[in-house]
Amino acid sequence: MTDDAQLEKVADLSEALSTVSRLRILTSLAGGAGSVGSLVEATGLSQPLVSQHPRVLRSMNLVTVSRSGCDAVDALTDHRH
């Protein structure tokens, strides 16, 4: 039987995936890592939205962030190992 902690995790993941904006960002990142600027261009979303949503995706371990000079670059988290 599934315990409450597992159900809570599934609920949090469902919430993280519940917006079209976040799904657009994830779809764009499926093609490769991207900075805020490249994600704005690829998704057609505003810069404030693109800056806000990856934080939620990072908190669910769906996206990781690295630095390239002054830019933050987001990428899908590799869960294959």
From TrEMBL:
Keyword DNA-binding: yes
Key words of the record: DNA-binding, Transcription, Transcription regulation
Keyword field contains Oxidoreductase: no
SUPFAM superfamilies reported for this sequence: Winged helix' DNA-binding domain
Domain spans labelled HTH arsR-type: 2-81
GO molecular function per UniProt: DNA binding; DNA-binding transcription factor activity
Signal peptide range in chain numbering: none
Pfam families with a match to the protein in the record: HTH_5 (PF01022)
Protein's UniProt name: Transcriptional regulator
Organism field: Arthrobacter pityocampae
